[in-house]
Please model this.
Amino acid sequence: MLKNALPKIITNTLPGPKAAEIMNRRKDAVPNGIRCTYPCVMKQAAGAMIEDVDGNLFLDWIGGVGVLNVGHCHPKLVAAVKAQSENFFHGMINIVTHEGYVELAEKLAATAPTRGTSNKVMFANSGAEADENAVKIAKAYTSRPNIIVFSGAFHGRTLLTMTMTSKKAYSMGMGPFPDGVYRAEYPYLYRAPSNMSETEAIEYYTNALYKTFEEASPTEYVAAIVMEPLQGEGGFIPAPIEWVKAVRKICDDNGIVLIADEVQTGFCRTGKIFASEYWKDAGCEPDMIATAKSIAGGVPLSAVIARTELMDSVKPGIVGGTYGGNALACAAGLAVLNVIKEEHLVERSCEIGATCMERFHEWQKKYHIIGDVRGLGAMIGIEFVKDKTTKEPATELVNAIISYAANHGLLIENAGVYCNVIRFLAPLVITDEQLEAGFVIFEEAIVTCM
Model:
């Protein structure tokens, strides 16, 4: 059974002959700007495993970049989507109502750790759409024009979310960009100014936010502060709770909406259904959550969740869209929530995270090229450096490790400002045997490439 299989490469080269033929066709049909460096053409997938068209078996530690927390083709999702498809595929929520939209909204409203006594939910199709709509709602609520985002942030590839995204490789040549988006420094503690304690660093990054108000936008013009509880593309960097508390206080003191971008961190990835549950436990919960990726196990869906007064501040016609809350996607979303509960994926995320952290910290002591290991739950980043003192990024090494691993049946991906972080995003249904098989290939890659 593919779900319980282990990685195995049977062709003499990768990609294999059938995969190579399809990848050559891809070159002629798909824009070069949509890059793919992995020698894998999927035939079928289950759990944490992918079988390619040549019969090679790959262990997937990328999970569609955080989309597949419940794994590939979970039988309960397949059944839910099939059942819905026999009734109807689609009914635009602005035109007709379908119960799946309402039920999923009710469940997410009750689950989300946002500030307030009652929530409402709107659905869109992608993480970028969720982020963009969250900003629109905050502007409607506050009647203010500006937002604050952070260094290292990734929020999407629409015009607004490209502007919000820090790394300019994602927006090169796409200007002019919208006004009213200003950037503060995110607390990247591993690369904080030298000789600072964590307490001093938190104060430094908090002061950096105040400096943004002074130099970019006064607080009375700021509608929202948007941040990831754990930066994804930025390098899997958790936001320190003491800093989040400081940001929450700034928002409270100045009437600013705090938006948690949980596009990648949601649905058990960090050991909680939402990473901002850690914020709520510390008394600094967000006003609004934008989420997507694993919400529907691979069917396009995203959501914005916030208290009723925030959501109802938007005039009719400002938010919504043709496919937002599509019936098939909502059916998948409801199935995801059931799988999370029935298969105890919150607990499983913590178990996987603990196992990975133990192994990765062993490697950190063993190999001089591993500078930092960090994360929450089963969302973990390993930062590779040329020297632990200078912390010079080892970007070429990471590329080599990824290539070696892929050619031996393990799919892993980089992240970070310098592309020198390898991220762990394996499906939470991964077996212990598969996890161990991945460790073996990963360590072989490190040893071979260093």
